[in-house]
Amino acid sequence: MGIRLKKLKGKGTFQRGVHPPGRKEISADKKIEIMPAPGKVILPLLQNIGAPCKSIVKPKQVVELGEKIADSKEFISAAIHSPISGTVLKETTVTLPNGRHVPALPIRGEGTQLDGQNLWDRLYGGEWPKKFDGKFSPTEISDKINEGGLVGLGGAAFPTHVKIAPNPKKQVDTLLINGCECEPYLTTDYRLMVEASEAIISGSILGGIATGAKDIVICIEDNKPEAIQTMQKAAEGTDIQIAALKTKYPQGSERHLIKAVLDRIMPLGQLPADVGVAVSNVGTIAAAAGAVLRDTPLTHRVVSVTGGGIKNPKNLLVLIGTPYGDIIEYCGGLTEDAAVVTSGGPMMGFAFTDFTMPITKGTSGITVLTKKDTKKAKETACIRCGLCVDVCPVNLIPTRLATAARHRDSDLAEKYNITACMECGCCAYTCPANIPLVQLIRMGKVMVIANRKN
Amino acid sequence: MKMIQKIFDSQRKHFEEKGKFRMLHPLFEATETFFFFPGILIKNSPFVRDNLDMKRFMSFVILALIPPSVFGIYNTGWQSCKATGMSLDFSTVFFQGALIVLPLVMVSYAVGFFWEILFASLRKHPISEGFLVTGLLFPLTLPPSVPLWQAAVGISFGVVIGKEVFGGTGRNIFNPALTGRAFLFFAYPTKMSGDSVWVAAGSFAKEAVDAVSSATPLAFSNLAVAGDNIESVLEKVGFTVTKLFLGGYPGSIGGTSALCCLVGAIILVLAGVASYRIIAGGILGVYITGLVLNLFAGPQANPWMALPPFYHLIMGGFAFGIAYMATDPVSAPGMDHVKWIYGFAIGTLTVLIRVFNPAYPEGVMMAILFMNLFSPLLDHIEIKFKLKNRILNV
What we know:
The complex is a heterodimer of chains A (454) and B (394). With 454 residues, chain A is α/β, with parallel strands linked by helices. Chain A has three domains: 1-34 and 114-375, Rossmann fold (3-Layer(aba) Sandwich); 35-113; 387-453, no CATH class. Chain A has helices spanning 116-123, 138-147, 160-163, 188-195, 197-211, 225-234, 254-262, 282-293, 324-330, 387-391, 398-406, 410-415, 426-430, 437-453; strands spanning 32-34, 40-44, 54-55, 62-63, 68-71, 80-81, 86-88, 92-95, 101-109, 174-179, 215-221, 241-245, 277-281, 300-306, 314-319, 338-343, 350-351, 365-370. Chain B has a two-stranded antiparallel ribbon. Chain B is globular.
């Protein structure tokens, strides 16, 4: 499939980056299944970038599906709603796969839950309008998104109402809907584009109204021809363009998407709005359509449960707060040669071992790698081959950053722009010496930021 | 494989912390990882890795070295048989070549490994796969008649002074194989240059000849006087362009065939081991410098000036040097753009040394070592430039 960018300036790809094996075939053809509600959900009170929420319910209080249970007064924050009807239990603390200790509210499910096809119809099914004729004002849309507690479902979990909102200071002219899903294995966005294209289109138009963007572009990597076709068909009769981008990791990064589609460069420390762009994930925009048109808050999300180490790979619509263990069990459990379970994909995901932990709004998938998939690696000396420099998509010098971090040289790390690293893992993927570049750089970033504060 | 695994498992205890051979742990580890992937699982993201790890990296270089090695054996044998009047059928030639070349390779590996294991055991760092490459590269750059003890001294110098004193693999400034060769070149010039070293008689020669006088194309070229045309001088002694390209002439063991080096270079570039930037830069450097010198060529001038640049590419060790030596990741710069400059400078220096300093016909060795010295500086310049112009370039 060629690169089709009709009126757009970009070349459809970006410089550098890597081509890890996609392995999307494991779960690509599995229709989204609706997983029955678990007996108990655990809702961490920090599921977004920004300020944590505070519980607004009391233990033993009875809550309904979609009832708000935690909120924050801060602007960059997103409210949390109950995905289940039941009773609130005592607040606990959980450790999320990324290592953060977060207070959490467990809720025990009681009575009958909205389930199966009914749930699907409520969230994604049915008719989705393509024309609004001034029915919603921009602020109305962003308020409803805020009310629904939406965050970016691609993984970063940035509160959506901050991005999809009228911004008088920074005029946005283009809204990019990110359906790249460049992370290997995961098929969450792909399945949504194939099965819930109408909701995505509806949400995109609403997003366009809210941001004031003239152009709306849905960006899909060219290894998903079916998604491109479905979206094209769904977009008929609207001004929405579909851009087929070259498959390369990390195409789904905001910075690289903007470069590939619009040929604009987003400098370090700036947001897409600074270059006149708003970017949103397809899952987020579909959820936004629901929040605006049907008043459904973000209580469920689609996750891919995939990899060679899971018995029945699936794409599941699950309740946010469902423990990982329940989901893995629903998929038949792990195979014998399963080696690593990660939350998210293999490139940027976090390995975890505590299966009682819940999934959050930002969990895009569970990847179970076998011993064969995940190479065994032993660190050897750097041979200065420069491969990491060759692949770094933000043009850094990973090996020097890692050396600076290893020797705790904060000044040197800062001089080499360590904070520009987005931890995509291209360098560590390609390093023949298997140096843990991402971990060292992550450590270096913490060190640099701590030194800045002093 | 199961049997081998069992042997390793049963012997492991002797090499661990309290075992009796704990000094030799690096050797055990190197042997084990030669057969199996190391038993350490990736604990941190990314959980998938490229297949090109260090072992694969080095294996590809060895693979790419096979064509020049095999041809080197054949050519050495052929030159030797021809000089000593032996039959020129394929098996004799090959056998004769193997008799001359294989001992050199074995000495190089054995002596080199001795130093490598000694340093690894004392310093408790793992044995690096890099030596497998150095140990093969080194003998291929030597003239076939070099005595074995000199090869041993050369590789010792290359490994110890060229690499280990700097802290081992990845820290060396110069290419170890070339450092060893340069040492021999200056320590034993009579065995490394001149007209009598490029064809080895071998022990099975019918007549007892120690070394046979036979000049390399570069040496022949130096016979040309002002006003002469090097091409015709070379043609007169039978060195046509095709012959120079294919490599059937006296010279260092691995370096005569530009074709084999080209094949090797393609393998290396496709596997992502060698940088095409360095190779392309080097060829451009030779070509452009050659063309510029052609402009100054006149009847009274040095005949080298008038030599078409293409000859520089196929004569002497340039093809071997630029494909295998200049692309050594450790001693070359790591940044993209300066790799072009690095390669270009090697090409330019090679031609300049050949043209203006006939005392060192093999200019490429000096050129690469000289540029090795500058590669950290080149890296530094590019990084400085990069940081200065940084609006976070995507």
